[in-house]
Amino acid sequence: MFDLPEWTGAAEPPAQEARERFAGVRFQPVGKVYHYRADGFDRLKVGDWVIVDTVRGRQMGQIAALTPPRDRSLQLKRIERMATGRDMALRHFYQNRETEAMIACRAEAADLRMPLKIVRAEYSFDGQTLTFLFSSDQEERVETGPLRDVMGRQYRARIEFRQISPREVAKLLGGMGACGIEQRCCSRFLTEFSPISIKHAKEQGLSLNPHDITGMCGRLRCCLVYEYELYVEAKRHLPKLKSIIGTPFGPGKVLEHLALRDSVRVLVGEGDLAREQIVHREQLVPLEELKRLQEKAASGTCDKHEGGNCDCGKQKPAAAAPASGEAERQRGRDLQRGMESRQRDRERGRTQPAASAAAPAPEPLASPEETAARLARAERRRQERQARREQARAQRRNTVGGPQEGAEASASAPAEAPGPESGAPPPARADDNRRPPRRPLPPRKPAQR
Known about the structure:
This protein is an alpha+beta fold.
């Protein structure tokens, strides 16, 4: 009890920090690598067999790498344990039964007339799961329920069916490639399939004949992406096709890009003296670009004068005088900006005062003839209104005074009534004097409730 640290005051030895360990596990000889946490497995090395948990259950895989994944934020599972001798014996036992299961499944699929092709049968290391890999030419999903029931009665295992692409079929079957290599690239070293399009063949100047660019799987060859980036990068520094360039042999026309040699094939000369030459990129002179630079230098202008950052001494030509309608366009732009600002204020829920509104554009001055005509029209309208008012007053006097007063008024009136331009009211009509006065209406009785 006297050796305890709290009694003697001695400090405990610092604990070694647990270092994170990762391992890449591969389940097929040339398959994709899946990363797992390998904390606690200090003696783990490449080539060891381990038991891990996957979406298809517990599987046995082989260590392919001891490097961490690119994305450290992923939640990785941990390796369960190292594989034992019994696990290895079970794995070899069930691997020998995979070919028998594949043949039986093909026979049952033919009896059921199902449009699929069984490519491989795979057992899990403990024999609890039997997976059949198949391919189909149909675009729609193939219903494998009846075949699963038949195979489930023959084998005491969980039966699964998984459809694979034509590229994966060619990888599993293996064989000689279309280029003549004894073993296809997908079966030898390709762990993942890259997306390939016809653009890769066009960029490299290859023949677009399907027989030349398709592989044994019926898809575009995987090797089209091997040199694609090199061709793209080389064409960025090489002149364009059919452009005129300078070479040590004289001016020539670009016929072909030789990206792997960083050169171009040029046609030099004309007529009977024309010949093709291969010229390296460092020996080329861009004549068209050089001509544009010479024309710009001869013009005596500089584009940098607009920002005030040029000290070459060259002056830019003076800008042309503004057109006669420039003031009108400027006024229209001011009005447009004012309308946009008011619209923004309304959207923000604010009321913009009238003083801050954009001032309306002044109307152009009219000619003296237009001003006189406008004044004459206004005077004529005023006289017409005055005449209508006088006529209404005369009618009211005739109605109140009776027919005698109306007759006297008509007798005293001048024989010739002046027109509306003189300002006097028009003469009253004769039937207006004979019209009897209106009788007042009797009072309305209140409604009985």
